[in-house]
Amino acid sequence: MKQSTSPTPSVVSSYVASRGQSPLPPPANYKKNCLSATTKSYKYLRRLLKFNQMDFEFALWQMIYLFIAPQKVYRNFNYRKQTKSQFARDDPAFLVLFLVCLCVTSLGFAWVLGLNIWQSISFIFYVVFVDCIFAGIIVATSLWLFTNRYLRTSSIEPDVEWGYAFDVHLNAFFPPLMLLHFIQLFFYNWLISKPWFISNFLGNTFWLLALSYYVYITFLGYNCIPHLKNTRLILIPLPIIFLFYLITLIISWNVTVSFIDFYKYRVY
């Protein structure tokens, strides 16, 4: 009987070791056959209407922890990079819940403003498509260009995904949304709208917290990417925001009242 000439496992292991290669497959983030950005975007958008495939429970967990421990949310992004070779979300559940929250809180805002039904619809469309999506695209694109151009440790490191930059914007936008479009509304008519110092203090403090949340969570989003350097530059707006906050109190400028007047001007 003819003996098999296939090499034994020990021979294979010795050969692999002699070439400095591992017999195990490379980690997901080192695979060469990663999906293109277009393919990832197509798969993401295709799942937008498939609610039975979305993990809403996990998306709700992320929203809660964006308030109390945003670092834990970004640990999941790192895990996704290792397992699915991308930082950006592949499940649109967070986006769907985010848009639902945005529409519901905007309805409450419209009620406080005393808008009629058509003005309320116009207001919701303006908030969703201009304040959130359009402004988010501008901010995400600007940070995407800035981080890829100036913060990468070397030119051979992979680019920051644009989809991830937009995810960071959504993460950072959610706490300010809840503070300014929901919690603040309970204080507006009977306190914040009054011409008192405590009114200015409370209204402007809401804005201080909201903007600080946005900057800090944005910083966490880029700081968790291992091949980025000097990400603390993203925190530069924080002292500027605090200085602006002190100036508004000194000159008795109620930012919330001005913001609401601006919203009324847009829909009337």
TrEMBL record:
Predominant location: membrane
Subcellular location: Membrane
Membrane topology, from the record: Multi-pass membrane protein
GO CC, alphabetical: Golgi membrane
Keywords, in A-Z order: Membrane, Transmembrane, Transmembrane helix
Keyword Transferase (UniProt): no
Region (Disordered): 1-29
UniProt cross-references to InterPro entries, sorted A to Z: UNC-50
Transmembrane segments: 58-74, 94-117, 123-147, 168-191, 197-222, 234-255
Low complexity bias (residue ranges): 1-14
Family according to the record: Belongs to the unc-50 family.
Protein name per UniProt: Protein unc-50 homolog
Organism: Musca domestica (House fly)
Underlying gene: 101891083
